[in-house]
Amino acid sequence: MTDQTAPRDSAHQELVGEVRAHTRRELAQVGLRLARSLTQRFVADSEGAPATGLGDPARDAVLPALAFAERFARELPPALQPPPAAHPLLRLAGLARARQSAALFEGLLLLACLPEAHEGFATLCRLFHPAGLPMPTGTLALHWLESESAAGARAVPFGVRDAVEDLLHYSPFASMGLIRLVGSGPWHGRSLQAGPGVWEALMARPPQLDNGELVGGYAQVPGLDDWLALPAVTQAIVALRRALPCQIMLVGGDAAMRVTRVRALLGAAAVVAVRTRSDGVEADTRGSACVDGYAAAFMHQACLWLEARNDEAAGDSASERLSARLAAALPSLPELPLITSGHSEQQSPLLGLPLIRLPVQALAPVARRRLWQWLLPQLGEQANVLAARYPIDPDDARDVVRDLGLRQSLSPQPLVLEEVGECIRARTTWSSRPGIQRVLPRAGWPALLLPDSARRQLQRAVRRVLQQITVLDDWGFAQGRGERRGVRMLFFGTPGTGKTLAAEVVARALGVDMLVVDLASLVSKWIGETEKNLAAVFDIAERSRALLLFDEADALFAKRTETQDAHDRYANLETAYLLQRLERYEGVAVLTTNLRSNLDNAFARRFEFIVEFPEPDAAAREALWRLHLPAGAPLADDVSLPELAAWYALSGAQIKSAALAAAFLAAAAACRIHQRHFLLAVENEFDKAGRAHPGFPPHTVWPAEDDADDLAPITPQAR
């Protein structure tokens, strides 16, 4: 994707030069006219009294400043050719309601810009400013314009004064803030300052705004071809290209998705926009920031883009104040194309403009496949897998490809699929919230000891995720009905039987992170808070492309009771909301419970896979003991894992805990790990579980004290 904001070809540079040259010539003529009027009134007329409202500079200080204006004008004679068609001053004359006063306002605007043009003009303005500021005042403008008016035809009394006051207070130029009156007191005693972006526009530079910037479009956005071809989007592109007054409202998705689509619109229409953000701006000052952006957009021949990145609802009091502020400030302004982008469906149209509403959604799977094929042609055969694993947007995918390119330049090895996942995880922003734990999956299939039937179901779930595009899109099983995507699984079994481990194995097989969600901590007694907490969980999961694990789902998915009071009704609404979000989630969602009977039977139909995790039998327990004892563990000769497996019915989690505890017992005694250490650790596991200990095998020997071999330090040879 190529940014079109600042092209650097020779034609563009030539146009920039023409705009700047014309601006300087116009400024030179205004400076010359101002200097001659001041010379005539306050220097040549030695009997004239000091000007009311102006400073009273010494004659020796004024003469060099006036001479500078003469020299500046001689170096830049008036232009013989008309200004370039793109010059911002031509836009002033184009205002239908202000054509008669456009020439007068142009002079005032250039006067306000004189201090920016050269420090010599700043010095001249400082000499005549009552407070010694390097800015022209309303009084200076009046003395200049009234002097020229008096030298010409018969002037209407106070005509110039009224015209200037009208322009600075009541004209469309004033509403737009192209010239600001700075300071306090009567208007004619205040300083004239060019509005935001005005000077930059006159010099063909991007505007310098506190909460905005000039942005262009993307020349090409892979993956958005289908979206750009939608009828409403096509209409919006034509409206932007023709600069028709309208509001183009982008609704939905997250902030990054909306930004990408706005930039794609601008690129397709070959226009630029002044982007004004509401982030970090006080609610009461958002209207002023938007008006600043409007002024910059007008001068730069751009559209205005009001961006709400924080997804605030359009119906809140702040947004209502913003709409009222805009309606009050901009009713008589030239109508520009206006782009608004936000998450809320409740956004209201602004300023009574014709509306084009554009929905923003995640890329369709087929579009994601084309995106990866375009960006990573060397992994083209695995584009289906990439599209299924990572529901990513074009901007994010572009950044990931840049990261991969850096890796390739530093270590020129063939690109593998796993590297894509590593780069995506590195760029995934993570916002920690109570009740959510991010887990980087490390366990693979060998770490999972399950019955063959359960293992096959997990492997089928992984394959189902990776083959969704083939089945639903290429083979047509979606049938245009928006067939739900993703995989929802229910794991049930007693604690410690490997449900969480199995979810981790699936996450690693898919190359994504795992988010472990404690539903009990998300459930709130306050109405609506539970849904808000759940929405945050799914938003994080969708941004991080993670596997969602809802541990102990009984907290919200237990059998629904009869609706006897308001609390029951709201509890059922919370459950319905979670089910709705599960249906829409395109990743893998896993719910765990200790007893399948704890869940409402109606929920079973919503899961693609229901996997039972039984308690391990003796053979499985022996395999678990061996799995949790590393090769470097110094086992004594009396250790009998088959005996431990046959004698004690423990879960996989308990066996892992007991193996670790036995190792610490042996380390504390500075000896190898004996059978008695395992027996003591197992006894502790039964005590923790509150279960009756079945006793020790009858041949167990409990020495009074460790023998010399046990007390000897463990050496590498012993291991």
Automatic annotation (TrEMBL):
Stretch list, region Disordered: 693-719
Listed InterPro entries: 26S_Proteasome_ATPase, AAA+_ATPase, ATPase_AAA_core, P-loop_NTPase
Residue ranges of domain AAA+ ATPase in the record: 485-617
Domain of life (superkingdom): Bacteria
Keywords, comma-separated and alphabetical: ATP-binding, Nucleotide-binding
Keyword Nucleotide-binding recorded: yes
Signal sequence coordinates: none
Any GO molecular function: ATP hydrolysis activity
Keyword S-adenosyl-L-methionine: no
Family: Belongs to the AAA ATPase family.
Organism per entry: Accumulibacter regalis
Name of the featured protein: AAA ATPase central domain protein
